[in-house]
Amino acid sequence: MAKLLVKFQRYFRRKPVRFFTLIALYLTAGSLVFLHSGFTGEPTVSENEPNPIEGTSERTELQDLGVLQLNRGFKEAPESLNPARRFGPWFKSTSKDTAERSKVGDYGGTWSRALKGRNVREKEEDRAKYIGCYVDNTHQRALRGVSFFDYKKMTVFRCQDNCAERGYLYAGLEFGAECYCGHKIQAVNVSEAECSMECKGEKSNICGGVNRLSIYRLELAQESARRYGSAIFRGCFHRPDNISIALPVSQVMLNMSVDKCVDFCTEKEYPLSALAGTSCHCGFPTTLFTLHEREDEQLCAQKCTGEDFESCGTAEYFIVYQTQVQDNRCMDRRFLPARSKQFIALASFPGAGNTWARHLIELATGFYTGSYYFDGSLYNKGFKGERDHWRSGRTICIKTHESGQKEIESFDSAILLIRNPYKALMAEFNRKYGGHIGFASHAHWKGKEWPEFVKNYAPWWATHTLDWLKYGKNVLVVHFEDLKRDLFVQLKRMVSLLGIMVFEDRLLCVESQKDGNFKRSGLRKLEYDPYTPEMRKMISKYIKTVDTALKVRNLSGVPDDYYPR
User: Fold this and answer.
1) Backbone angles phi and psi of 160, in degrees to 5
2) Handedness of CA 80, 83, 85, 87 (dihedral sign)
3) For the chain: N or C, fewer Cβ within 10 A?
4) Can you name the residues that pair with 135 across neighbouring β-strands?
5) d(CA 284, CA 18)
6) Is the dihedral of CA 375, 377, 380, 383 positive or negative?
7) Which parts of the sequence belong to the WSC domain (predicted)?
8) Does 202 share its domain with 231?
9) Can you say whether the dihedral through the CA atoms of 471, 472, 476, 478 is positive or negative?
10) 56/188: higher pLDDT
11) pLDDT for 201-221, tens place per residue?
12) Does residue 73 carry a pLDDT above 50?
């Protein structure tokens, strides 16, 4: 045997080409045998094993994702390793749906994507059923629940997921990037051809059209998911004088509970639910019922007849909740009908709440705000004026953080938003390292970034205000803390400077929608004070300088909570 191997070795050493040719033939033959075994015949299924083609609904979900290799000779991965699609408890699938989908079989590559694109609505009926294309407009929304926009990453599933998590029955997509939720469709059905805009986040799906909604009915797995647990407690209030006008819809409920009254008002599409003993009233916040004068909650402390641990108010003092129904009286927004020749600045130091103020102004006036800069993330979230040049004249005011004389003098008037520097610096540091609603990491706070940031930005906080007071024309000073504490009065001042006549009912609507999509969660707070004694000493000097400058101009000084730290 050894002699034979030596002969082969000498032979191929003299003829290397033949050696490599033999190796190539061997590999080719092996590949052909492998491919032949993988593509011929049907998969063998024993009597004790479930047929993979007639499998459970969990298997079928994997088929839809193209991860089952039904006709390949490979072993199936353990069930725990199979990447199941994230549906959630609010989806349901019937055995009939499962059987129909299992007949589809396995598809791969381009054919699978094409099939999915054509049949996406039928394929997704296990989680939501497509209802049709409906008319929508800014004055009378077809779906009157919550809404959100994403002009970059909107998908059908994302919209359905957000609406379902909040317990809504319907999810609608519009203009390729807008998502609306609701419990009732209040619009007429139109031709499918009118819903023709692709989703911004998935080109294979349709997300409505211009003033057209592609609406899905969410298939809830459990009826309990339809309870409105996210209703917001507003407080105890005295009975309005003209209750039939202030709260136009009411019903007697002998077995009263908070859930029953909130459910009733939600079904009637009202944002306020008022419990008055055994009576449930529904309506909007209006000048007849502003929700500005809260009473002592003890006056409303009467136990519900149908619930042991909740108060349901009395005939004179109402317990009020805000339902999931969105108050659409202030949701319409557009560009100015005629180009303005006056440029009004919404000026602030970074981190002072400029984006939030823009949100409030847009809701209050119905017109888009512009920006001295361009922030794609803000545009994608619905600030459509972000893309316009700041001198386009199509926006009601222009966001700016500039503080130079030349830049300030280019504006005809300004709203100057001032915030506590301790809060503003931390907010801007979070935005810089965590995004508009994110947070800086622990390493950033403890590293060299934070001290360097305070050193550079704290002086700017003072000079920004001083420059606008010195060079600005017709400057209205608004303190962020006052805007939070008394939004109705402060927003009224701001709108007045903008030259827009706004009804008080619209401002009351803004109060109920005040948070918007850019409120940073308060859940992640630092467990320590990041300011050193040296930092506080420096910032206190700047606060005194700004306070003096405001008082010299007969303006109210900085709020008391700026001192002490």
Assistant:
1) -60, -45
2) positive
3) N
4) 212
5) 90
6) negative
7) 127-219, 230-324
8) no
9) negative
10) 188
11) 888 899 999 999 999 988 753
12) no
Query: Taking a C-beta distance cutoff of 8 angstroms, is the pair 438, 430 a contact?
Result: yes
| Distance separating alpha carbons of residues 384 and 370, to the nearest angstrom | 8
> Could you tell me the strand order of the sheet in which 249-252 lies?
232-238, 317-322, 272-276, 279-283, 249-252
> How many structural domains does the chain have?
3
Q: How confident is the model over 321-337, as a mean pLDDT?
A: 89
Q: What is the pLDDT of residues 445-492, one digit of tens each?
A: 989 999 999 999 999 999 999 999 999 999 999 999 999 999 999 999
For residue 327, being part of any structural domain is answered with no
DSSP 416-468: EEE--HHHHHHHHHHHHHH-TT----HHHHHSSHHHHHHHHHHHHHHHHHHHH
Is the pLDDT at 135 greater than 90? The verdict is: yes
Q: Residue 399 maps to which CATH number?
A: 3.40.50.300
Same domain, 403 and 550: yes
Q: Is 272 exposed, middle or buried (0-12, 13-18, 19+ CB in 10 A)?
A: buried
Residues 6+ apart with CB under 8 A from 459: 542
363 plus 498 within the same structural domain: yes
Residue 328 lies in a domain: no
Q: Are residues 512 and 376 in the same domain?
A: yes
pTM of this prediction? Answer: 0.64
Percentages helix, strand, coil for the chain (3-state, rounded to 5) are 40, 15, 45
Q: Concatenated DSSP letters for 117-146?
A: HHSHHHHTTTTEEEEEEEE--SSS-SS-S-
Are 386 and 241 in a shared domain?
A: no
Q: Which of 169, 186, 218 is the last residue of a domain?
A: 218
Does 508 map to a domain?
yes
Report the pLDDT value the prediction gives residue 469, as an integer from 0 to 100. Answer: 96
Rounded CA separation 517/515 (Å): 7
Indicate if 296 and 193 belong to the same structural domain.
no
**112: Cα separation from own chain's centroid:** 31
Q: What gap in Å lies between CA 240 and CA 305, rounded to an integer?
A: 23
- Which residue, 172, 198, 218, sits at the end of a domain? 218
End-to-end CA distance of the chain: 92
Residue 182, CB-side half-sphere exposure with 13 Å CA sphere:
24
Give 74's DSSP letter: P
CA separation for the pair 87, 79 (Å, rounded): 17
Classify residue 53: in a domain, yes or no. no
Q: How confident is the model at residue 51, as a pLDDT?
A: 39
What type of residue sits at position 247? L
Q: What tokens does 540 get?
A: 């206190």
Cα dist. 439→15, 270, 357, 428 in Å? Answer: 69, 35, 20, 10
- Shortest CA distance to 319 belongs to which of 289, 271, 275, 258? 275
Are the C-beta atoms of residues 264 and 282 closer than 8 Å to each other?
A: yes
- Region class of 351: left (phi > 0), else alpha (psi between -120 and 50), else beta: left
Question: How many helices and strands, by DSSP H and E, does the chain display?
Answer: 19, 16
Q: Phi and psi for 25 in degrees, rounded to 5?
A: -65, -40
CA nearest 273: which of 332, 320, 342? 320
Instruction: Look up residue 193 and give its two tokens.
Output: 């051809």
SS3 state at 16: helix
Encoding tokens for residue 108? Answer: 């791969």
Tell me the two tokens of residue 323. 């339902």
What tokens appear for 512 in the block? 């109920």
* Domain membership of residue 459 as a residue range: 344-562
